[in-house]
Amino acid sequence: MAGKADGDRLLSFARSIHTDLIVSGAYGHSRLREWAFGGVTRTLIEESGISRFMSY
Question: Which residue in 14, 16, 22, 56 has its CB near the most CB atoms, within 10 A?
């Protein structure tokens, strides 16, 4: 689950510098790949403690 780990690291870093907003692109993969490996986009979508601005 590299994507999940990468997303968690990004969120940890954002919290450590007291970020109020994360701006990112939202990139999707096939459902099978997302299920198997997770993804940074999914991790950011599931986060509720930091505001996000995402564009696809």
Answer: 14
